[in-house]
């Protein structure tokens, strides 16, 4: 029998090793973004399509055919969304000359306002704008190059994702056996339970997010239609689509309709109204819509969500920001089910609300108590004894 020597490391050595390991993980994730980003998206879509695939297989569809039907379904859905966005952009492009003329007129009004208010003549303003434009043009080349590179990588990722989704679904039993062998000391039932919870969290998050986006799109569109903003449906849907990036998406999505209001309306109050509509929708989304639909199924507290967004953006850009919330929720499920790491899962979640600090809970409890007392009194009154 082999003898093992246990070495007790000092605390500072343990902390140093943990920090070095975390740094190496982050470096690896950043360097491997080209592979990890499509893999992560494919994993989420595979979890979302898994129930449909299982259902088709229960109807005696071969697994390959069932996976093919799932892939065709999601490609059709994404194609419809892409067609809508493209058609709206083409329609928007037809009105672009008129918008440019309106922008020129607005710029002239701004020149006159600056001249009257600050005493800066138009020629000095134009010189300043030329210098600013030169600075912007000097850096625009790198910006365009980066944008083209990002677009090319995005299309390459979209080409790889169906392949990854297919193999995730096809080899799902094989991956389960791998996890059972990897965590041999953990009962298979516990691993299956964790996998089921992860699938449930991802499904609830994505389906809830789609429903929230639909509600936000409807509210944005109605508000913009009331104000008479052109392309209200497009801007409402775009802002809802950008809402996939929590906290920041709705802000970015509100810029375009505000600019449209400034260019197409005679009063600045329309732009103020647009900002008010998006502010109200954001408040409703954050305080009522998302908590009611997603609820505690993806219970990641705002601080953890913001930190995850920042880390995801640093590592993988916009894709990392989109992936940050679902994978933080997955990490929480895993941490909650590993006893030594359970405190970290607790740290990621929502803080518990004491019963005495929950007015809704007191109202419900009082209501139940009153109903119970009423039933008891009626029973005693109607009793033959």
Layout of SSEs?
Elements: H1 11-31, H2 33-58, H3 63-94, H4 96-118, H5 122-170, H6 172-182, H7 188-227, H8 232-242, H9 249-264, H10 269-293, H11 302-336, H12 342-348, H13 359-382
Could you explain the architecture of this structure?
The protein has 385 residues and is mainly alpha-helical. Helices cover 83% and strands 0% of the residues. It contains 13 helices and no strands. Helix 7 runs antiparallel to helix 11 and helix 8 packs antiparallel against helix 9. It is globular and about 85 Å long. The C terminus is likely disordered.
Put the structure in a nutshell.
By secondary structure, the protein is an all-alpha fold.
Number of helices: 13
- Structural class based on helices, strands and sheet pairing: mainly alpha
Work out the strand percent. Answer: under 5%
Helix-residue proportion: over 70%
Radius of gyration: 28 Å
Distance linking N and C termini: 78 Å
- Given as residue ranges, the uncertain stretches (5+ residues, pLDDT < 50) are 359-364, 375-385
- Give the overall pLDDT as a whole number: 76
Estimate the global geometry from the Cα principal axes: globular
Largest sheet: none
Order of helical and strand elements: HHHHHHHHHHHHH
- Beta-strand segment tally: 0
